[in-house]
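Researcher: Good morning. I'm working through a list of sequences from a screen, and I'd like to move beyond sequence-only analysis. For each chain I'm collecting a predicted structure so we can compare shapes side by side. This is the next one on the list. No need for commentary yet; just the structure.
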Amino acid sequence: MASLPIISNNLFFTIVFANFAEAVAEGRGKAQADALRSTRTDTIAKKILPNGSIQEINSTELRRGDQVRVVAGDMIPADGEVISGLGSVDESAITGESAPVLKQPGTDIASSVTGGTRLLSDELTIRITADPGQGFIDRMIALVEGAERTKTPNEIALTVLLAGRTDAGVSNCGSQYSTAG
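Model: Good morning. Structure tokens for this chain:
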């Protein structure tokens, strides 16, 4: 029975390592959510007022139906639909696709833009389609923060086995000490 403590120790360290790896992954997810959140709050929007003038405001102040002008190099301040202009948008932060996407009015896919992406060329006028807290990035943040990984059947079995082996090892040690004294 000398191998029982070795097996229990190996199982114990396996569980500790698995929990550590899970904590690291959770920390990375929270860091990604924080990075997305900072993109959302630090964007300046060029809101088009009813008289046609431009007012610079924080993107969190935009409401559904507002119109904004975005020029090359600007971050798109919120989810919206292109109503005029033509431009290439870098959506790699959202989709992972490195090639820019051409955006223009009048088409289903090509006219929608996501807040937090960057306009690479030309100029767009965008009608905002989502109120603050209801955009794509907001939903992504909520998913990342609310994500909870479920344990696999093997992890559950290993945890039960470790608990049983630890209990058996403690009982065994206790009985050896009680007969020795």
